[in-house]
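Late entry, written up from scratch paper. The run itself happened at the end of the previous shift, but nothing got recorded in the book at the time, so transcribing now.
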Amino acid sequence: MLLIVGAGIVTALQVGKAAIAAPLLQSDLGIGLAAIGWLTGIFAVLGLVGGIPTGALVAGFGGRRLLIMGLLTSVFGAGFGAVVSGFSGLLLARVVEGAGFLLVTVAAPSILSQVAKPSDRDVAFALWSCFMPVGLAIAMLTGLMFDDWRTIWWASCLLTLIICLLVPLMVPVDDEHRPWSWRKLKTDTMSVFHARVPVALAGMLALYSLMFFALFSFLPVLLMEQMDVSHQTAGLLSALASAVNVLGNLAAGLLLSRGVSRAVLLAGASITMGVVSFGIFLPLLPAAATFALCMLFSAVGGLIPATILSSAPIVAPTAGLVPVVLGLIIQGNNLGQILGPTAVGSAIERFGWSSAAYAVAGAALVATALVAAFGKRIKQMPE
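Output as recorded:
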């Protein structure tokens, strides 16, 4: 289980390295925050359309094979990005890295859903959902060790390769595969969409991801501008803020195992993130208080992905469709991962940091409405 989570962490590191390398990229390539947003958001472009097909591939060919393929794709993308000479080439490399991220983030939880006992699934998915904040925190910390963004890319390439080599040695072969065809993909997709609740969960995760990356894609820059701290200090503070997201992930597993309503966790966390965003992005509070709100935003937000991912086996129409449901949920995550950095980055450049607060609050409001509409159906699903 730990190696599977480790595979997720190294792919999340690929996401976070663009944020901590932002000042280096701005200096070397002469690009602005909107372009930095695209380097973060374009990472998820394949996941936006490929989540469900990838879930079907996992069901057809096995999570272990797709996990290895995803890690190898990430290795290639990171290596390619380290040698390109301009922004367009780096953007293309991020798309390749995004393909690897998609394969890993669909295959890994599918493996967990098979190997974990039903009574342990909430805890297992809570551990898995830690991969993103831990990966982002590692990227923020280790990125400070380098003065050149290309070295960061090479280091991430090597680390991913090491994890990839360990997977065939430690992850068991999964023999239960479902026949794969385009017709079967269409049938499975219609079954999942007809259930409606998986679509709602994907929408909730999209909105969470938009809120999360609206802050964390630009947090080092925000801290440097508003708190007047160095790049190194901004990286350390950003890593700390990202790491506390793990507390929410783990807390969700504990609370769900003790019978706390999924709807309560989802609605409460969404509302809190929306309210707190005003204190973060509007110039209302002292710097220390603003950073404390960043910590709260991250910690409470961690309740959302753990709750949604652990709900996938519950809301899937059949056990065989769990990978497809996970693929749909990952598509939602990638939609938010694109919209958060790109749209909010452009808005910040045009209207200032305050515009991010209204974007996050709006997303929180829509997420709460989705919980109100579908939360009871999630709660009533047999576990």
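The first helix runs from residue 2 to 20.
(Scratch paper discarded after transcription.)
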